[in-house]
From TrEMBL:
Note on how the cofactor is bound: Binds 1 Mg(2+) ion per subunit.
Matching SUPFAM superfamilies: Thiamin phosphate synthase (SSF51391)
Organism: Heyndrickxia sporothermodurans
UniProt-recorded name of the protein: Thiamine-phosphate synthase
Cofactor(s) of this protein: Mg(2+)
Positions with a binding annotation for Mg(2+): 69, 88
Alphabetized UniProt keyword annotations: Magnesium, Metal-binding, Thiamine biosynthesis, Transferase
GO molecular function: magnesium ion binding; thiamine-phosphate diphosphorylase activity
GO CC, one annotated term: cytoplasm
Family per similarity comment: Belongs to the thiamine-phosphate synthase family.
Cited NCBIfam families: thiE
Keyword Magnesium: yes
Thiamine phosphate synthase/TenI domain boundaries: 7-186
Length: 201
């Protein structure tokens, strides 16, 4: 699958399923190119239902669905990929479980983490936090120099994540990321479609 990471939407699990589908559809119409369903605290059934409906919606737009952390959910709904953090199932173990066709992304905060992810076979990395974020309050904010150094240390696509808004995303342009990942900038926007249009590079 040829994946466009340009505008990467990460969902907010506090959003009820009906509203979630509506926001995501508008966002995709506005330019979102890939969607990650992130449910840190939901029970398995809620996560599965959201994933199943989201997969059906995104398939009609030919936009990949990435599942955060939960390999079982990703496999159960036939998601296009999975994204894991440094404290989740190791990438080497993950690659033994999922089909070769599945996109695998890894969150990174250092050059060492990024290079290891590439070496083991990640398809892309997320780098952050780029700015202070309410979504993940314990996230360490990385300087522009560090973001660039991590991005330049690998040859696979790199997506900036963390606190990215309409007011600050321009600051990342010089680093030439493969894309930016946003949560609140679209999920909390009054008009998700317009917000996506403005964020689309």
């Amino acid at each position: 699958m040829n994946v466009n990471y340009n505008l990467y939407l990460v969902t907010d699990e506090r959003t009820p399923i009906g509203e979630l589908l509506s926001i995501v559809e508008e966002a995709v119409q506005g330019g979102v190119t890939i969607v990650q369903l992130r449910e840190k605290n939901s029970d398995g059934l809620t996560f599965y239902k959201k994933a199943k409906h989201l997969k059906a919606l995104l398939k009609s737009y030919q936009v990949p669905l990435i599942i955060n952390d939960r390999v079982d959910i990703a496999l159960a709904v036939g998601a296009d990929g999975i994204h894991v953090g440094q404290d989740d199932i190791p990438l080497s173990a993950l690659k033994r479980i999922v089909p070769k066709s599945m996109i695998i992304g890894v969150s990174t905060q250092t050059i060492e983490q990024a290079q290891l992810a590439e070496k083991i076979g990640a398809d892309y990395i997320g780098i952050g936090s780029a700015f202070p974020t309410k979504t993940k309050q314990d996230a360490t904010v990385l300087s522009m120099e560090t973001l660039k150094a991590i991005k330049d240390s690998v040859n696979i696509p790199a997506v900036a994540i963390g606190g990215i808004t309409l007011d600050n995303f321009h600051q990342l342009k010089e680093i030439n990321f493969s894309g930016i990942a946003v949560v609140s900038a679209i999920m909390k926007a009054k008009n998700p479609k317009e917000a996506a249009k403005k964020l689309f590079q």
